[in-house]
Amino acid sequence: MPLSSPTSPTASSPQRRPAVFLDRDGTLNVPVVREGQPFPALSPTEFTLFPGVPSACRALHAAGYVLVVVTNQPDVGRGTMARSAVQAIHAKLLALVPEIARVEVCYAPGQGKSDPEDYRRKPEPGMVHDAAAALGIDLARSWMIGDRWRDIECGQRANLKTVFIDLGYAEKLRLPPDHVVTSFTDAAAIVLAASRT
After folding, report:
1. Checking phi first, is residue 26 left (phi over 0); if not, alpha (psi -120 to 50) or beta?
2. Fewest CB atoms less than 10 Å from the CB: which of 4, 15, 37, 81?
3. pTM for the complete prediction?
4. For residue 1, is pLDDT > 60?
5. Domains, the chain, ranges and CATH?
6. Torsion angle (degrees, nearest 10) of CA 147, 29, 77, 118
7. Of the candidates 194, 188, 183, 164, which has an alpha carbon nearest to the alpha carbon of residue 57?
8. Residue 73, SS3?
C-alpha cells in the first residue's frame, strides 16, 4: 500500500500538477555498494540521506512539484527482507522529507519470477501511472530522477523528462537520459531551471 504524507493532494484536486518522481536508493539516500553494484539500506539506522536532499526537495515542492518516491524493493518478494523494515525506512524518510507526497513501492521479486505486481516494477511505469491517477498529476510536465537504468527507462516509458545521477556503478544505461548529473542537488537544479523557462 502506498504511503502518503498527511498533506497529500487527492485525485479530486481541481488542477493537475507536475510531479518529480524520485528513485530512493542512490538518489535520495546513500546506497551500500558491493563490487560496483548498489544495494538498499536494510534498516532505518542504515538509511542516510545524501547531503542537500531535504533542502532540494523543499525547493522542488515550493516550485509547485508533487514529490513521489517510486522504489523497487524486490528483497521483500524474495523473502530476504521484511516488509515492516521497508515501511519503517519510509516512515523515517517522510519524517526527514515531509514534502514527499507519496511513496510507491513494488515488492515484486524480479529475477524472472512472475508476480501480479510486475506491471509496477521499474522499468515498467506502473508505479508512475498509479501515483498520477491517485494524485491528479500531469505527466507531460513531470520528471523522473534516478541513478539506475531502470529509473531512466521507466521515466521514458511514462513520457517523463529524465535526469540520471551518475554514481559510477558497474552497469550501463540502456537509453540516453535527458540530463546527466552527479548529485541529487544538481538534478533538482535542472528541474528548477526548466520550471522557470
Report:
1. left
2. 15
3. 0.90
4. no
5. 50-170+177-188 (3.40.50.1000)
6. -40
7. 188
8. coil
